[in-house]
């Protein structure tokens, strides 16, 4: 989504919700604010975070802030910028709120002295630190932090992640970032944090763009990490933890901090030894010493690193400013940059690159140019072989490495109880690497072959068949995610020879046939036993190598192996077809030609019959390439009448159905008692993964007793508007405060 489109989106949502949302800035009574925060801290969700993840104070504070925003809507009291502006003088003493106990999220006030000023920063040092180390030493340290921030961290993070004011604006009308060096909570092991509480007024807020760093920890990577959090929050307060933390860890690479072969500590010491950890969940409760949490940091870093290396700095910058979070936000970012790729394909390319790490082929997608990593795997060198109860997690990696497996191998995997299984197979033989990727639900079998094969990586992961979506509400993104234990059977075998028969596809009726398929075993004997072999036609959709459909073939003496099927239920697109045959220790595969499946439909302008300006009938004709297929089509299409007001806002939705007698689509009498003023309609057809709408009808007047509703819009628009309203609440809450 471009920045212009985002701005338009926010403005449209703001117009829709003017009656519901105050556009004034936030202001809080301090006692009320503190009491409310104390109650929120008691929330079981917050307590779980405090107990399990004391090493991640920033995200815990973000959770508290978001919960507080849910419970404390905007007030009508303006906060004047003049009351926030401040004159800054070196050696001045300021009072700051700071979290002094992260296990209870207790705020206390401390004094701090401004010891260094940069073009973009104020460096304050806590009074307790100055008393301990002396003013001269504290000033030297403050100036060192200032110089590092000004010369490296600020320009690098600004270039890759964006402006610290983001979409939300400058809370204190001062572009400087405040950096407070203090003794943080040693008991919780806090090295630094960003507190979104400071991004609003009142209560325990310092009302400024600000990060905290432990004076004694003395690692610049902490400042780079927390500064990224500040930037990201100001663009997208509700970003998923793994995306936000991946970007924050990536800032260490951008600034050259704490790296070994460009791996962060968490990637090197945790993720590469715990690759089964889910990329999409922030995990607490599996290993002692927070191993899973640290693996989360490492995995998120590796993913963002891959994204930046393959798609450029603009991809990261646009991802931060993309208001949709997680996988969908990543898809939007790449699609806006012209890369046609879905998240599942990106994910499988990433896990393959982690294992193969060879960017010399496949357009560089299967390796890294600027780092080295060695992911743990299970080694298999004896065949046949069976591995039972192997842990697979939701978007986590289970990896086996096959050494000298032979040139023909069949892998059979028990399907997961829920979701799908993504499989990436990387085969290295005399011709180099070849990569095959699939997402399958049932009958999971993988054919592995080559010429003088020496190494094979097999990577599996439980996934959704479409773009994954984890709710942000409550703590849905926290935990381990779905897990399952799967069995793997590695069967060395001999090839089956498949001879092409006859393929026929009638595009005007979707009728597909494949017959006279002849299969021979290694002894040149015809294979006819349907109980000992499975044969199916596999359809791979162009543009997404992971989308497949399988049709099972049967056998009879006249048509040999054959299938006859109607493909009306397939999504539109080009499909590459191959025949796959597998049996006990034998298999074969043969690529056939491709077909195009089209469902071309045009919906004409609807006509209306209006009664008393409060009710109407709708009629619409449509033309369709599959003539004679109307009866079948009506079973798979969803049709609606959409009512719009003069602002082009959808305000109502009604049913319309097919009439075989008139060969057109007709509605029942639609009552418009709730609508008033000028309107028009469109008719929507949804089928086979796409939606086609008619042009708008003639405009007409309605004279219902109630003006056009915008807060009780019928399905399916209500969920869309509700989602939009959440974005508007966040946007208005901050942006209007500085106007």
Strand order of the largest sheet: 1-2-3-4-6-5
Sheet of most strands: 6 strands, mixed
Q: Give the C-alpha Rg.
A: 30 Å
Give the tally of β-strands. 37
What class do helices, strands and sheet pairing give? alpha+beta
> What is the helix fraction of residues, given as a range?
25-40%
- Put simply, the count of helices is 15
**Low-confidence stretches at least 5 residues in length (pLDDT < 50)?**
1-32, 73-85, 707-739
The whole-number mean of residue pLDDT values reads 83
**Count of discrete structural domains:** 4
How much strand? 25-35%
Q: Tell the overall outline.
A: flat
**Cα end-to-end separation:** 26 Å
Structure explained in plain terms:
The structure is a single chain. This protein is α+β, with helices and mostly antiparallel strands. Helices cover 27% and strands 32% of the residues. The strands form 8 sheets. Strands 1-2-3-4-6-5 form a 6-stranded mixed beta sheet. The protein has a 5-stranded mixed beta sheet with strand order 7-9-14-11-12, with helices on one face. A hairpin with a 4-residue loop joins strand 32 and strand 33. Helix 6 packs across helix 8. The longest helix has 27 residues. The protein is flat, with a radius of gyration of 30 Å. The N terminus and C terminus are likely disordered.
